[in-house]
Amino acid sequence: MKRRMKKIASLFLGAAITAGLLLGCGSSGKDTQGDSKAEASGSEQAGGAAEGDSAATGEAGSLDTSEHVDLRMYLIGDRTPDFDEVYGKINEILEEKLNCSISVDFLSWGEMDTKYSLLFSSQEQFDLIFTGSWAQYGQVAPKGGFYELTEEFIQTYAPDIWSVVPEVAWDQTRIDGKIYMVPNYQNEFKQDVMAVRGDLMKEYGIEKITNWDELMDFYKACADHGIYASQGGPWYQFFQYQGYSTTSGAPNSGALILYHAQDPADLDFQYILDWDGFSDYCHQMKELADAGCWSPDVLNDSAERQDGFLNGRTAGMIWNMGSCRTFAKQANAENPDWDATLVDPISNQPKAVQPYINNGVAINAVSEHKERAMMALNEFYTNPEIFDLAMLGIEGKHWEAVGEDQYKVIDESGYGVDSNCNWGWTNANIKRTEFIEDRTALDDTYDGLMDQWNNNVREPHVYDGFSFNTDAVSTQFAAVEAALGTYLDPLLNGLVDDVDQSLENLKNALEAAGIRDILEEMNNQAAAYVSEKQ
Questions:
Q1: In a domain, 490, yes or no
Q2: Which residue segment(s) compose the domain that 507 sits in?
Q3: Is pLDDT at 507 greater than 50 in this prediction?
Q4: 419-433: per-residue pLDDT in tens?
Q5: Residue 139 maps to a domain
Q6: Which terminus of the chain, N or C, has fewer Cβ atoms within 10 Å?
Q7: Could you tell me the maximum CA-CA distance found in the chain, to the nearest angstrom?
């Protein structure tokens, strides 16, 4: 397959993203490209000496792959019906090029928060794992769970990745000056939208959902008509509507301590238990839960977020724009009368773009095949044939090519487009865009929203690139996470008898766990981080 030419990104969005990302760095450790190269030249990597010693030039042909290696990778989500068939094709290529194969295990969305860290504390033997600023990068890397990737190591075993990933992206990955992941290379927005049944909106007299009040009207209308609105409370939509964003590395995947992303001059963190807005949210959720806006058993529901929407149990689902369009299209294909569409309940806010470290891949520190793992990741990231397989499935069965850089879906029921946790190695240079032969109202809505967002990119905030290092407060951090597991989710979903008492119980539990120590350490790190950026 011919290597496709690099796509030309939107100049406006690209400029905004570059401006924002130049502020970003993985942690408080200041490092320059020149400094890090000097460190790399004098460093020694542990592990994999047999393969590493033979790699003097960094060219694939000079690396010793004579010994067959079986690699193991962890991804997030659930295995689709045709996943093994697709990865069988990928393994045929890896066997030929690198004398290795790769098997994949999945952590479901429901178990990621609890089981991800256990993979490292138990010293489980695997090689590669999906990670990101929202997926435990800031928690696992400082504790030694991920293998440090020196620039020399990357250039030797993944030279094609090194030539693709921009310097600002590598800078974002740095924790105390060190790289522990390969970030993806794409520009994506960090706000979710809602896929919703257009037929039910029309039936309920809901003309639009563009703000929080209109979203609440829709939720209540769904309950009045005996259908769940979504899979739980819309907590992220609430604080994003107020202009806040999650803080990378903070407890609860960053959502316990927020920052005012819409105001670059505001450098105060917002601990949600000190925020009247959180109490207001919890009282609203109690009202919605009592009305029947979602299942009372939602805390025990292990279903994927799209399942209820596709099977008609819920009237909507909340996710990123691409995933919402994918499942809205599937819903319309299976139920044309649903008229599934997309809505933006936070249309009042300028849109933030994700840091590159939002999605990526890391190497397990105890992997026995670090060099071969990096070589395999180089193929996933830059080999168009493997990239297409992982993103789209098997050509001729799941999709067909249109020109050099587009695709047309044939059948995504067995695999799914861009939905098998291939995001860790997304490479905008070779990523195909969808060719839409028979456009629908959903396609027009998607394009319209994207145009609006591209023309309304928010000003960068210095905390967009900040990632909290939990090392100094690891005991308190673990205690806080444990307390959250008991108290927070019921409040977020309104499943408590007394909101005020439950808030007090949560606040007391977090105080006892050491939340003030975490806040103090976070403020100290942030002050040092900001000082470096000035």
A1: yes
A2: 468-533
A3: yes
A4: 999 999 999 999 999
A5: yes
A6: C
A7: 69
